[in-house]
Write a structure and sequence with these properties.
Length: about 260
């Protein structure tokens, strides 16, 4: 009777974003490699995949750094679209999967304390605005990664102290940072792993092709019981340009 009504607006795409609580400290306490720790990035993706396997209304997840965004089908009726129920379930499931699978990714580093994630819901009224949101997160990944890559090269490889490295980078644009990486460290930023530069996007595979008449090839079903069909596709692709969305039109199907 006193419970607040918090139904997500109809028709809008719900996005639930989880973000590591105090991961600046968490990454230090657990000896994360700088600027990117593959173990942590893959553990994040493992936890996000578990969320998607469990909650079928998630059509796409995008992750970078200590965050993952989950896009729900715009017409989802999950928990009657109750915001607190959806956000708390996704955040809690993600967090427990992160802790549950920790030792697979960090076999020699015990968890020092229980990790936590915050979660929030944002609503996007159109596909275009939803895509703008995803562009923003991927652009954020790129900007932070470029900065962190140069910063840690200056500190770890060139022996600069952190204050000087920060000053050195303060007034550089993207071109300037690329130039430092190339001229001083022989690194071409564009050849660094896409995992670091683009983050990770998880989608479901496109619907099956109609079976050719006569000799149908049985591909099994998509409920996770048949190993032959991947349940999820995990990609490190650009999701800003149209290419990705043209290749996988089923992800945001339906009207605008
Ligand atoms: P918050 O989210 O307000 O509770 O505070 P933080 O500390 O989690 O801040 P946030 O989320 O803005 O920044 C993410 C932090 O996580 C940032 O300090 C860098 C760290 N981090 C994330 N991924 C990695 C990684 O792969 N390697 C290292 N060394 N650090 C990482
Ligand atoms: Mg934060
Ligand atoms: Mg955080
Ligand atoms: Mg973050
Ligand atoms: Mg109950």
């Amino acid at each position: 009777m006193f419970e607040k009504a918090d139904v997500l607006l109809p028709k809008c795409w719900p996005v639930i974003r989880v973000d590591g609580r105090g991961f600046h400290r968490f990454s230090d306490s657990h000896g994360f490699k700088k600027p990117n720790d593959d173990r942590s990035l893959h553990l994040m993706t493992k936890a996000a995949s578990k969320v998607m396997e469990d909650l079928k209304d998630v059509v796409l997840a995008y992750g970078q750094s200590d965050e993952y965004s989950f896009v729900l089908n715009r017409n989802t009726t999950l928990y009657n679209r109750r915001e607190s129920k959806i956000v708390s379930t996704i955040t809690s499931l993600f967090t427990s999967c992160f802790a549950f699978h920790w030792s697979e990714f960090f076999p020699t580093t015990p968890l020092q304390y229980p990790p936590a994630f915050d979660g929030r819901a944002v609503l996007y009224p159109t596909k275009r605005i939803l895509r703008d949101y995803l562009c923003w997160r991927q652009a954020d990944c790129h900007i932070n990664n470029l900065y962190n890559t140069v910063f840690w090269a200056l500190v770890q490889d060139a022996g600069m102290n952190k204050n000087d490295a920060q000053k050195r980078l303060k007034d550089t644009n993207a071109g300037g940072k690329n130039e430092i990486l190339f001229s001083q460290f022989g690194v071409n930023y564009n050849t660094l792993p896409q995992l670091y530069r683009k983050g990770t996007v998880i989608i479901r595979p496109p619907p099956r092709e109609p079976a050719p008449s006569g000799g149908a090839v049985e591909r099994g079903d998509r409920d996770g019981t048949d190993e032959k069909v991947p349940v999820l596709l995990t990609l490190n692709e650009d999701i800003i340009r149209d290419n990705f969305w043209v290749s996988y039109p089923h992800v945001l199907e339906g009207e605008d």
